Amino acid sequence: MMPLWDSDALRAATGGTVPDGVAVTGISIDTRSLRPGDLFVALRDARDGHDFVLAAFAAGAACALVDRNVAGGPTLRVTDTLQGLTDLGAAGRARAGARVVAVTGSVGKTSTKEMLAAGLTACGPTHASVASFNNHWGVPVTLARMPADAAFAVIEIGMNTRGEIAPLSRLAHPDVVMITTIAPAHLGRLGSMEAIAEEKADILAGLAPDGTAVFPADNEWSPLLRRRAEAAGARLLTFGESVDADARLTEWTGGADTQSFRALIFGADLHVTLPVPGRHMGLNALAAIVAAGALGADPARFAAGLAAFSALAGRGARVVLPLPGGEALLLDESYNANTASIRAALAVLAAQPARRRIAVLGDMLELGEDAPVMHAGLAPDAAAAADLIFSCGPEMRRLHDALPPNKRGTHAPDSAALAPIVAEALQPGDVILVKGSLGSRMSAVVRALQTVQGAAA
User: What would the DSSP string read from start to end of 267-278?
Assistant: First the structure.
């Protein structure tokens, strides 16, 4: 394998000291996923990465990025490891000839990033963020991993509070930026929907000269996004269902596990088949096609490449659960939640053929003082989509109490208490949706359901 970075390049990128003859083929910040030949970056978080350097070398690391003396193998010594990683990411971006798209949004960032990766791969060598590598260490890791010969790169950018997106955008220096939508995610931290919209619009901060912004046409905050794009001098392309959208969804047909739609894009009528359900996924795909076209990719070839896209675990993955006497279907949406994403997931649940449709919902976190109303306000959508709704957490108690009595399943204080109850209730023919904020730990319910599967198998 060709080296990603050698000693000279590492020194030039970081200003650090490293022995001659070092060559690394990848970047790792976690010994559990490290591959032989990687550069292990000793970051400090809940644990100090320096404590794992020996384990990294034992796993085959070619070098370790450190800011204090450690033993066990060759080291790239810098003043601060996070800054060293950031410098390495900046150097990776600077040397690459790839056309770069940066993706943010309150809902759908990771799924849209995966759509972009699938479609662009059909158009040329493509590099993309893994998982949700979208923060102050994930973005530089992605950039530092970028092969110099990549034609396209997809960078996901997220945030938890105000002021986080702009520096990451400047680091990525994208040719195209995309906002999937604006919704009440992290509302408790940012304080208002306007602040969320402004923070998401900060993705424009690093946009290359003559770059393109791809924004939703139909969102309440679209006028703010348009003003920000115009102020930044960006070429603006909008997507959505309104007649004013530059890329407009004109027809949509949805099924239980697939969908097709027609759209007017760049003046052409394009027909797209997507191997996942949900109108929201179709709109994400429409946005991805627009962004790909702005990067210079062929929209039709990109759209054909979307056949390789599949929903991720925690973000819509469909898992068949064998049971005595039949099987059930799990819709795993356990990674995160806000009002927009829960309503979209409930719409997918409603489209599934099933003996019973069951929703298992955990608290939506970081919604601030509006959280009680937002949770109770989901009751009509949940009751329309599901035959039975289980819930957990103090805020979802509001939903439970607002539901019609015949729709109420068990409410529990947390996911650990709810998980065995849901697993016990599962029957052949059920379709069961599991969704909640990451901090609600709804993956515990997913694991319990998969244990039932394992026992039955």
Answer: TEEEEEEESS--
Q: Which amino acid makes up residue 400?
A: H
Task: Look at strands 247-254 and 259-265 and give their pairing.
Answer: antiparallel
d(CA 229, CA 214): 9
* pLDDT for the residue numbered 456: 41
Distance, in Å, from the CA atom of 101 to the CA atom of 82, rounded to the nearest integer, reads 23
Q: Are 80 and 44 in contact (CB under 8 A)?
A: no
Q: Give residue 452's pLDDT.
A: 80
Fold of 317-456: Protein-Tyrosine Phosphatase; Chain A (3.90.190)
The answer for residues whose C-beta is within 8 angstroms of residue 405's C-beta and 6 or more apart is none
What letter would DSSP give residue 378?
A: T
Contacts of 33 (CB under 8 A, 6+ apart): none
- CA-nearest of 107, 103, 161 to 133 is 103
**CATH fold match for the domains 96-308 and 317-456:** no
In 96-221, which ranges are continuous DSSP H helix? 109-121, 138-144, 165-172, 187-190, 193-201
Cβ(282)–Cβ(273) below 8 Å: no
Distance from C-alpha of 211 to C-alpha of 200, rounded to nearest angstrom: 17
Q: For the chain of 457 residues, list the mean pLDDT of each consecutive stretch of 10.
A: 93 98 97 97 94 97 97 96 98 96 96 97 96 92 96 96 96 98 89 95 97 97 97 97 94 96 91 96 97 95 95 94 95 95 97 98 94 97 98 98 98 98 97 97 97 58
The b-or-e profile of 334-362 (16+ CB within 10 A means b, else e) is bbbbbbbbbbbbbbbbbbbebeebbbbbb
- Position 417 scores a pLDDT of 98
- Is 96-308 in CATH node 3.40.640.10? no
Helix (H, G, I), strand (E, B) or coil at 343: helix
Token pair listed for 153? 């790169």
* 339 contacts: CB under 8 Å, gap ≥ 6: 183, 184, 364, 374, 377, 378
Give strand pairing partners of 171. none
- Calpha distance 187→395 (Å, rounded): 15
Residue type at 398 in one-letter notation: R
Measured distance between the N- and C-terminal CA atoms of the chain, rounded to whole angstroms: 40
CATH code for the part of the protein at 5-79: 3.40.1390.10
List the chain domain ranges.
Answer: 5-79, 96-308, 317-456
Yes or no: say if 392 and 441 are a contact pair by the CB < 8 Å rule: no
Query: Are the C-beta atoms of residues 34 and 61 closer than 8 Å to each other?
Result: yes
